[in-house]
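R.M. (postdoc): so does anyone remember the format we settled on? I'll just put the structure tokens first.
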């Protein structure tokens, strides 16, 4: 059940700091016999419930400067070879450097599962670096601060996602078939994902979390949903110890609901970390495929509601909004129009988001809400063939080609869907770094409309073509 991880990245991104945190080496230092530590290649590491081994790459940079690149590359390749999973570290504070891409290429070529770690995320200005990290095509970057120990729960979840529950926890893998970062198809021979595209599977349980501000009506909603048609509750065999989900059925469809009560059992360390982050909600969100945001329709949108929505979108999950306590509203039609308009305006990243008026208390609207959940889930799983995408691209390039930057026209060559859940596309172009964000947004909006993907985050990564 144990696995080996290698921490890879250019110098100074924080590899040793992360290594020390995982291996707890600072604490162990006093007990170590001098000289032994240096030679030991593999250290025991822990990340909450994950016990694994981390390959020591510290000291690689200690070689004389002249031989640095070659030596580093060789050592990196050896470490990758030995590893089951790669922690690819970038410095979110500094942003992407050419060396990051060089190392990323080596990692990508290895075909090993990768967790993309955006370190120094606590630093001011790290947001830009975090976004840039997407461009490496190694999947979703996990923001952490190795130095301050922030983001470790997310790192843990990302490892489980990349390697699978079987490898990391010894659990049946079936319930999560989210494409791991490593499966993002990048490189010379991008396969048509359609070839191995599984059809949308209605028999798999659909995983849902319910989030929202205190008093919005989350508990009432959950009880209304589950109480009515619950077939099965409580921990399942095998995952009794840390069960976090409740199984139920809605109109014949299997559902899994994140059990917030289970969230309260936390280790001291985790509690401490969560004060620094929004990890509580994050755990629920990461568990889920679809996240129901419960809003109290009698209280207007607040910043906190948007922050929750933002988090869901950033995590690549699809939100569905429930305007709750609709039984208290006396101008329902007008208010619904207003609320929907506002939602669209405030959440352009998920244009077309499903937003349904409900009363958790009376049960009205719950069928429509669940219909919206299922519909959004289908969209979240959607796949577009490379053929259709490139016919679409031809049309786009004919009508609205990318702008010229510094006198040279940017060229877009090819687009392919590299990922589902949520849909993710790789666009090959000349000079990705010069491509304006506005054009990328234009592509996303157009993709959404052309292939009917309302209400889910859509990702586009740019890749160099030569
Ligand atoms: P490595 O050479 O890539 O292994 O990087 P190190 O672990 O030696 O870290 C390089 C520098 O970045 C050191 O000065 C660290 O203190 C600093 N550093 C590491 N992690 C973090 C972090 O999470 N936040 C910030 N702000 N600095 C960090
Ligand atoms: P939570 O903190 O988000 O879990 O919210 P609760 O489910 O505990 O609900 C907070 C309060 O709102 C309780 O007094 C509920 O009875 C009330 N409430 C929840 N849903 C509705 C609804 O649809 N209509 C009305 N009128 N009250 C509701």
């Amino acid at each position: 059940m144990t696995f080996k991880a290698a921490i890879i990245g250019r110098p100074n991104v924080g590899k040793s700091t992360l290594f020390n945190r995982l291996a707890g080496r600072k604490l162990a230092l006093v007990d170590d016999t001098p000289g032994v530590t240096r030679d030991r290649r593999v250290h025991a590491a822990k990340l909450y419930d994950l016990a694994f081994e981390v390959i020591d790459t510290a000291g690689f940079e200690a070689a004389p400067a002249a031989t640095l690149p070659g030596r580093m590359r060789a050592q990196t390749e050896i470490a990758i070879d030995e590893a089951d999973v790669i922690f690819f570290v970038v410095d979110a504070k500094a942003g992407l450097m050419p060396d990051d891409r060089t190392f990323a290429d080596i990692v990508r070529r290895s075909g090993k599962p990768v967790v993309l770690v955006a370190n120094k995320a606590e630093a001011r200005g790290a947001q830009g670096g975090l976004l840039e990290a997407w461009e490496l095509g190694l999947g979703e970057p996990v923001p952490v601060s190795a130095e301050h120990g922030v983001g470790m729960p997310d790192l843990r979840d990302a490892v489980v996602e990349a390697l699978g529950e079987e490898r990391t926890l010894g659990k049946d893998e079936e319930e999560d078939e989210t494409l791991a970062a490593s499966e993002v198809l990048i490189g010379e021979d991008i396969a048509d994902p359609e070839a191995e595209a599984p059809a949308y599977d209605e028999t798999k349980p659909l995983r849902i979390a319910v989030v929202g501000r205190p008093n919005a009506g989350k508990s009432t909603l959950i009880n209304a949903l589950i109480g009515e048609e619950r077939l099965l509750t409580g921990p399942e065999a095998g995952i009794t110890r840390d069960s976090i989900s409740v199984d139920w059925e809605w109109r014949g469809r299997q559902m899994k609901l994140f059990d917030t009560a289970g969230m309260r059992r936390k280790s001291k360390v985790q509690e401490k970390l969560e004060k620094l982050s929004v990890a509580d909600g994050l755990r629920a969100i990461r568990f889920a495929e679809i996240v129901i945001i419960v809003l109290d329709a009698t209280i207007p949108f607040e910043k906190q509601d948007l922050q929750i929505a933002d988090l869901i979108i950033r995590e690549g999950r699809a939100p569905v909004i429930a305007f709750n306590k609709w039984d208290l509203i006396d101008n329902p039609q007008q208010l619904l129009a207003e609320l929907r308009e506002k939602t669209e305006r405030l959440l352009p990243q998920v244009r077309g988001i499903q937003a349904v008026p409900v009363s958790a208390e009376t049960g009205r609207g719950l069928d429509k809400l669940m219909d919206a959940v299922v519909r959004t889930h289908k969209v979240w799983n959607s796949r577009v063939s490379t053929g259709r995408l490139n016919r679409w691209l031809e049309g786009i390039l004919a009508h609205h080609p990318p702008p010229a930057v510094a006198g040279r026209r940017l060229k877009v060559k090819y687009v392919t869907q590299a990922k589902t859940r949520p849909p993710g596309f790789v666009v090959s172009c000349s000079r990705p770094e010069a491509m304006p964000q506005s054009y990328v947004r234009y592509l996303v909006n157009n993709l959404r409309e052309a292939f009917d993907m309302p209400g889910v985050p859509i990702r586009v990564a740019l890749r160099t073509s030569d």
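R.M.: ...and that's the designed sequence above, right after the tokens. Also worth knowing: Residues 185-196+383-464 form a domain with the GMP Synthetase; Chain A, domain 3 fold (CATH 3.30.300.20). The pocket of guanosine-5'-diphosphate (ligand 2) is lined by residues 212, 214-220, 324-325, 327-328, 359-361 (CB under 6 Å).
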